[in-house]
Amino acid sequence: MVRYRFREGVHVSSDGDDVIITTPYAARLNQIRRIIRFHSVTDSFKNFLESLSENGVCCELFTINKDPCAQDLEKSDAVFVLEGLYAKGLLSTEIGNSKSAAIRLDPVKNSLRLRRAPLGDYRIRFSRFASIYPCSDGLSISSPLSSANLHLIDRRLFFLLTELASACTEESLRQALPDDLLVHFDDLISLLLSSGVAGLCDEQGVADIDRHAVEAGWTSRDLAFHCQTREHEIDLSRMESSQTAVIQEQLPAKHQRIILQTVALPEPSSIHCDLNFFQVIRDRHTIRTYQNQPISSAVLSALLWHSMRIKEEIICDPGLPRSYEGLLRPVASAGALHSIELYLCVHRCHGLQPGFYHYDSGRHCLGKLSDLSEPCLRMLELAAASTCRAPQAASVSPGQAQQPDVLIVMASRYARQAGLHRQTGLSYALILKDVGSIYQQLYLVATALGLAPCGLSFGSSELFEQASGLPTHLECSVGEFMIGNPG
323 near 317, Cβ under 8 Å? Predict the structure, then answer.
């Protein structure tokens, strides 16, 4: 039995002789649910839509059986309506016996293409980007490339997880399918293909739905992260069902830490730079070699002052329920949230003792957290080692495995972003964009100051957690930057 019914989040209402279908889909920007209006409909059509909302309609690939809910509606009209609703991602499709469903397709996007079982010999497999997770009625399979999720309800179908992990033939699937579901074999193949979590394989065993992503070199995690944070159309019903407890109070913009001592930094005087703004941009480049003379605390102060100091504290979206504290710094941050804090592993610096420091961007001072502990030393070693593997060019100085004078570690207070962007799923994406802004700001200011700047592509969250004593879920390291005197 193949049954179609409205998916979760679809609502049907009447407006005189018109019927309005409210969908769960909306644009991310305004989150206004899209609607479909049918004008001057008949009572039999209303009954048909009501059946889709309640018990569903039994069909075989959109060939209407003699179902009581469709007997007063012309067969061609019913097929046309079902095809339209299916294509708009509004119908769940179930396959099972007369008692219960065995497998279900649930659309998650407002467009869905029906793919029928192919003729002749073929091989089929799950997408290599597919994810499997438990749900209330079985196992759910999804892919960032798919327009629907696939739910395995009948435990006898859990064999699909191993069979379809690699390319398998039609015959091998038939042999493993329970006898009572064999009659729906072609429908099941159609369901797998239509969901987008499985595809037909080429000679190399690559599913057709994966081909372009595989050729481009996407990894599963990167593709999932990209699709989640860049989609324009969103499924509000899915977001609401997965939403956890909302943070009632926004985290404050500034956070006080326990420090051993406060080290004042001199307020920078006017920088006497021989370069104008465009020359700084032209001359900006990575320098990985350092001279024996370390940088001074005055120059380090100027770097921090012109990169990350708090210029002003503001209230964002005043008068709205989501009003929150914001900060203005020389560098940009989405929503003025500025969730990123700077920590400094000071290896050597005139006027400053070696140690691990936090930069207080409000008072423009350093708070010493510890001496150079073992995790700090390992972070410095890791920073030096990671630069030697970078490809070299004429405009980039070669890496010499030298430890920097100062290693700047960027750590984000994730909950500060999540308090505002939990529902959009953009929290971590915006954090990484803020990191990019800080990297460029540090590069430009360091160039103007005549320093040797080098942004790193790799760092260790574990070492930062050990050095700072802060759990990763409170503050997580998201970027590292080296500074020294150019050699």
Answer: yes
Strands 57-60 and 25-27: unpaired
Mean of the per-residue pLDDT values for the chain? Answer: 88
* Residue matched to tokens 């407006």: 15
**Bridge partners, residue 454, by sequence:** 482
In 236-286, beta strands by DSSP E: 261-264
Q: Is 184 strand, coil or helix? A: helix
Which are the contacts of 367, defined by CB distance < 8 A and separation ≥ 6? 257, 259, 260, 261, 262, 263, 357, 358, 359, 360
> In the prediction, which pLDDT does 317 show?
87
Element (H, E) at 95: strand 91-96
Q: 172 by DSSP, 3-state: which?
A: helix
Q: Give me the residues paired with residue 168 across strands.
A: 124
Phi-psi region of 191 (alpha: psi -120 to 50; beta: other; left: phi over 0): alpha
- Spatial neighbors of 120 by CB under 8 A, at least 6 apart, are none
Give Cα separations from 273 to 7, 279, 302 (angstroms): 64, 11, 12
248 or 428: which leads in pLDDT:
428
Q: How many other C-beta atoms are found inside a 10 Å radius of the C-beta of residue 381?
A: 13
215: number of Cβ within 10 Å: 9
Beta partners for residue 9, in sequence order: none
Determine the pLDDT at residue 36: 94
User: Could you tell me which of 262, 243, 167 has the C-alpha nearest to residue 210?
Assistant: 167
CB 475 within 8 A of CB 413: yes
Sign, CA dihedral 366-370-372-377, equals: negative
Are residues 173 and 163 in contact, defined by beta-carbon separation less than 8 angstroms? yes
Question: What pLDDT was estimated at residue 255?
Answer: 75
211-254: per-residue pLDDT in tens? 999 999 999 999 999 988 888 888 988 777 655 444 445 677 87
Strands (E), 317-444: 324-328, 340-346, 355-360, 365-370, 406-412
State how far the Cα of 183 lies from the Cα of 181, in Å rounded to an integer: 5
Whole-angstrom Cα distance, residue 211 to residue 201? 9
